[in-house]
Model the fold of this input.
Amino acid sequence: MTIENTDTTTVSPERAARIKTVVCEILEIGEDEVTETSLFIEDHEADSLRAIEILASLEKEFGVVIDQAELPRMVNLRGVHQVTAESAGW
Amino acid sequence: MTTAQRLVITAWSAVSPYGIGRKSFVDGVVTGAPTVTELDQERWQGPSGRGCLVPGFEIREVLGAKGTRKMDRVTALVVSTVGQLLADGGIGTGEDTALVLGSTMGSAQSIMDFTKDVLVRELPYLVDPAKMPNSVMNCAAGACAIWHGLKGPNTTLAGGQAAGLMALDYARRLLIHDRAAKVLVGAAEEYSAERAWLDRHSWPAETPDRVLGEGCAVLLVETADRALPASGRAPLAEVLATESRVYLEGDPSKVLVACVRSVLARAGVEADEVWAAVPSSVGDRGRDEREVVRSLFGSEVVDRVPTGDVLGDTGAASAALRIAAVLSVAEHSPEAAGKVALVTSADRYGTVACSLLRLA
Done:
């Protein structure tokens, strides 16, 4: 059975806020500078190490395991919400 | 060597227990003020309560919050020193600018923290990936190049206390083979509780008057025929020669004498032409090194640059800081022009090195 996660409704506002805090701290930007779709690398000067750091920090924050193969999807907050929700089974 | 290209130091800066930047270093060397402080035992849980730290060196305060979140102390020392040097002289960077950095082992703290996380975290891979680069030795040189846009060759040399002199010789080779138009060359050592414990367990018999210090000194070295016409930068000193040797027994004295004679011969300089001779070690070994150099050149020459133990044991940075001290004293000594200065280093892991400069 597969569950399609095409929107962010599976991530509660409280979890979304925690994700945003993690991401913004790593990207060294204010929480008002990032949107659901702004791109970490193109818009926020991230690099591959920052991407790994986001993945590892979310694993720690929510006690989940995220497959590194998901990294290519984690390009913005929306992608991070989807991947994290799937990995956590939310 | 093929054609003899003259290499000159045209700028320098230092971040040391005297403070941040060239001026604080010159003032500190000239006044000889002590730098040992009682360390905050909560923050620095090392074996000794004393150290010679860069005052006020809080990374995010010195370099700003952007890009420093996971930066370690030795990297910050190098980024800060190079930044001071470039800003002082309005010096541009880019493809033609190399960096050669002397080190002992990078950051002992970063290496040990990362390794500890592997062992104590819930799972071995639950480490902080952003701190992984800090655990390799060339992190400081690489991060500094990214920060300041140094796109020429980037080299880290592990040479213990002699690292600064070896780096100077490496810079010479880059320049004479035209691999870079100018080279930022220096050495750095951070203070950390981890380094202090490694030091204590490696050398338990050392006298307690040796305290650990930290700092970084960086020189700008370029060929004489390029420096002035290209930029108007006047030479502060010419780099005459560097020699290094190894010793296998406990006492480096004989090897140090041979090394000094050999560097003089290579540069075609007589011993009585040496105006200042500056040993780099501190503590017991510093006293031995000083006695050897004194026996060769006399007290007046050895005391000309009053470094002594005042900065503490600055590890890999020690010889580079001594070159900065020579340049500091020369700045206040009109009679130094045209004179020769010798900096020696007798690392306790078996390396002896010395460099000769002719002051401008």
The mean pLDDT of chain B is 94. The two ends of chain B are 24 Å apart (CA to CA). The first helix of chain B runs from residue 22 to 31. Chain B has two domains: 7-231, 237-359.
